[in-house]
């Protein structure tokens, strides 16, 4: 069978956009491939769509996009929604400033610039100067900054860029004195920091991939190199590799004083080994502080001859520990900040003190401690929300942080560590009046009796009559918490009477490692049960009804949406699985997918695990004749994190099972990846299309 000519690009036919849409989908070719897992045969009719660079796949993508965009074009308010969202996005956006080598740096977007620009200024009152404008790196804004790192001697800025949303990075170097770009170029960098030591830095990279398979082949044999400024990449020194274990990642860090090199190695997304090396002794060997992968260890810094480490060893909610490199046996480790009932997410060393960020019921709190671990005071925050920032050197008394929540646009504060005083430095000038909206936190009981928090945001005056359109969002994986945040893209929906809800389900990090583990492997169904129960709670409490309920999630959240819509198709009106992990039998065979096995398990490790995975794998649970929610699958053609084949195969399977009485589209963004670095123009397009589809299928009639 030759898939180049085996499917038909249809003449588009749609009578009208309504609940009984009749759409002629592309007739996707089917192979007769069958894969045997233990004693079970599994058909793989759309395996050919895994070849993302094949002409047949590209033609299929074009055919699907033609159908999708023709459908979206007929939504009467889509153009007005896009204009309204464009107007809302057109305001100056700032990052928290940070100080390095006596100068301040920050990012700013004037409003609709595709990428934010890096500025510098000598003082907070000085006129900012452009240091690096990534908008000049491409004509369409699809080249984005991934990371920046200033050398401690003030001579250089190293920065990495990503093209079209790919995880592959390239590193460049700027001379900060002359502002000239040096000839240094480092390629095939992925999942890497930039850690300076003198006039060079450490980074992580892979060997160059096979041509044509850059975005799908399995990533193997991660390595750490040292690059000396001025050298060709071929001269870079190999610092660390593990030839025995190709499916491991490794990373390098350097303490602020450049005394210690920190090497971490991971097998999956949780748990790491930890090694340090004294850089003041050229012939020093690595000192292993942790050899296994059962727990997480993150070095905060080197302070007064001791290494401060944030870890969940014997502390599900994490603790801060002190390690003496000269006496590093585990029994000699000292607890500085002990575990408590809230999750210790991050610790910074500033102004001779420790600033600790906690997560309590999915919202942030911050406290200052002295270096011995004595609590001094709490940093006062405006409401329940999320903080980010607190960066700087150990002797800096001045730092900045950003606070945000669902109805609290990002606000930057300047914080004096010595006096515990915070003042507003910059407010977002977005066209949004927080006084017109409400954000509340409620708790509901999941299927097995577990209490789960949920944030509900809506316009004042909302009535619990079961008639409100509602978007339910979740993630539920990899110890990642979904904290309160402000998003301009949600404003049109809640302005028009929509309710936006975030369920902080298991699998995330909202309540520490125990909460995470309760949603992994053979307990993954807890995640879906939590989300389904959230929907049932919202219906029972008259916030909405099943005819007015949409669900959305991205990446692992795309898996969540795919699993829930196939398990309970009756419960939801609209489903938006975005860049989702939808084929649970083969996810580990592409790019970095093997690293997710701690959360998911794999179909090859045991029959029991295979049986569990296939029981919820969205791709393998689409059934003929079932009326699924109106669905728009979202992905990007350059997504090399969760390869687009997941979305391709799921959409093809949905369409093949479609009896003609529901909508199942796929929107495939071009020159776009997993989401990071997406230009503003593409963000507006994607959000306009998603919300237009959601609002239309929920029966909303907005006036924009």
Description:
Among the domains are: 34-86 and 432-697, Rossmann fold (3-Layer(aba) Sandwich), CATH 3.40.50.1820; 340-429. It is 16% helix and 33% strand. The chain contains ten helices and 40 strands. It has an eight-stranded mixed beta sheet, sandwiched between helices. Strands 3, 4, 5, 6 and 7 form a five-stranded antiparallel beta sheet that branches. Helix 2 crosses helix 10 (680-697). 48% of the residues are buried.
Largest sheet: 8 strands, mixed
Distance between the termini: 49 Å
* Fraction of helical residues: 10-25%
| CATH class wording of the domain at 34-86 and 432-697 | Alpha Beta
Please provide the count of β strands.
40
CATH 4th-level superfamily of the domain at 34-86 and 432-697? Alpha/Beta hydrolase fold, catalytic domain
Mean of the pLDDT scores? 94
CATH topology call of the domain at 34-86 and 432-697: Rossmann fold
Q: Please indicate the percent range of residues in DSSP E strands (runs of 2 or more).
A: 25-35%
| Overall geometry | globular
Question: How many helices in DSSP terms?
Answer: 10
Helix/strand-derived category reads alpha+beta
CA radius of gyration is 25 Å
**What is the CATH architecture descriptor of the domain at 34-86 and 432-697?**
3-Layer(aba) Sandwich
Strand order of the largest sheet: 33-34-36-35-37-38-39-40
Unreliable stretches (pLDDT < 50, length at least 5) are 1-20
Task: Provide a compact summary of the structure.
With 704 residues, the chain is α+β, with helices and mostly antiparallel strands. The protein contains 10 helices and 40 strands. Helix content is 16%, strand content 33%.
